[in-house]
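Course exercise 7: structure representation. Students receive a sequence record and must write out the corresponding structure in token form. The form below is the worked example handed out in class, using 6-carboxy-5,6,7,8-tetrahydropterin synthase (109 residues). Read each field label carefully; the graders check that inputs and outputs are placed in the correct fields and that the protein name is recorded exactly as given.

STUDENT ID: A-19
EXERCISE PROTEIN: 6-carboxy-5,6,7,8-tetrahydropterin synthase
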Amino acid sequence: MIYVTFRKRGLHRYAGAPAEVDYLAHTHRHTFWFKVSIEVRHNDRDIEFHLFQDWLESLYDARTLGLDGRSCEMMAEELYTRIAERYPGRAVEIDISEDGENGAVLSWA
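STUDENT ANSWER:
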């Protein structure tokens, strides 16, 4: 597998936040850190790093993402759908975190 990374600013909220962290229910800003790994079929740039990274970044054209109530997990699932359309039949792992601190990792075989 190869991987690429990139970052995007975004606004989101967690409507069902527990009382101890009720401030998360209000729209707040993060820098979302993405690490996307994808299966390659040979060791000579089957998928070229820079082109893959550029394509992924182009999927997020807004300067600041308006995510409403979407979680890191939901964002990863949406991104996987796009990757699977372009690169069918490949294993993919997507790691998305809030500010490089807390996040989620989802994998597809």
